[in-house]
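Progress report, Aim 2. The chain analyzed during this reporting quarter is listed below.
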Amino acid sequence: MVLEYLFLEKEYKNAIEQLNFKYEIKNKGQVTQSIQPSTSYIAFGNSDIWVVKYEVTGENLNNAKCLSELNSEIISNYNPTVLRNDASAYFNEHLYPLVNKFERVLRQFLYLKSALYKGDKLKKIIENLETKDFGEIYTLLFIDDDFCKQAKAKINSKDNGNSGIYSKEDIINLLFKLDEITVWDKIVGNNTLTYIKKNFRKIIFYRNDIMHAHNIDYSDYRRAKHTFEKALKCLEEEIEKIIKYPETKEKAEYVVTTLYDKLQSTDSEISNITSNFEHINEIIRLLTSSASDIPHLEEVSQKLSQFPELSSKFTKATEEFSKCTSLLMGLGKNVSEMPFISSSIKENKDNS
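Predicted structure tokens for the chain:
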């Protein structure tokens, strides 16, 4: 494996010649192996141009880590032109299959979800994904055009009482008042695959580095590898659920989301919610219990009946809750085999 650098002046020649780089591999604090690249030079006649070459024998992760560390030291101290970086090539080559697999599994997941979604318009959007680049897929999934238009109109409007002059907090408050509903929210759901939704820009960034053979170091390699492996695992688990429970999964997600949202909505509508916090906590405890407890959600309805002093708005929320409970009870005797329901409720609670 080789590192090769081009220098246009002899300014750093002595410093490079005196560089005695050695990479140490440690196990429990003890050095188990040392790697010291060999060094050679290429001169171009009487000109000031010269090339330095570092080389280690064998293509493996330890050698790649060695050359990556050496490369970081040379770039930060001397800033030459990189002619060859086999450490980066090694990292790129080993990440490429992960990126390739992620893109294929993502398309598989989106096709399955759009097939289950009851809406012809969105089904037409999620088609021919192979013809779109990753940037187009991001825009398709995560950018709400209506939200963007409303945000621009609000910020440019002179009807907000501040004559077009905003602080950062003003703009944030304006944006928070606007609804943002993306294709991903409609087809996938706001609380499904949150890791991919939150990290999609990072995935695009790593993907572009890898697919375009940009030079990356060992730290970049580790972060990219972790990101794609976790994203892939999330996708494959979700596909397994869709295939195992194609109709029930859709219904369960709707019930869980609606149920929790109805409880959460009462917070802003009922002024004395604090005095009933213990009751709410008990409801949440019931909802976040193990999946085997879900068939006994009649306890939840009983708890809600202890709220006679709350306003009529809460009564309405209770009725909605009962509907959701009935839907959940209707999922059948096999609810205990669907651990994702319990985890979905808990994830909703943790994100609140």
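The CA atoms of residues 37 and 56 lie 5 Å apart. The longest helix spans residues 86-116. These observations will guide the mutagenesis work planned for the next reporting period.
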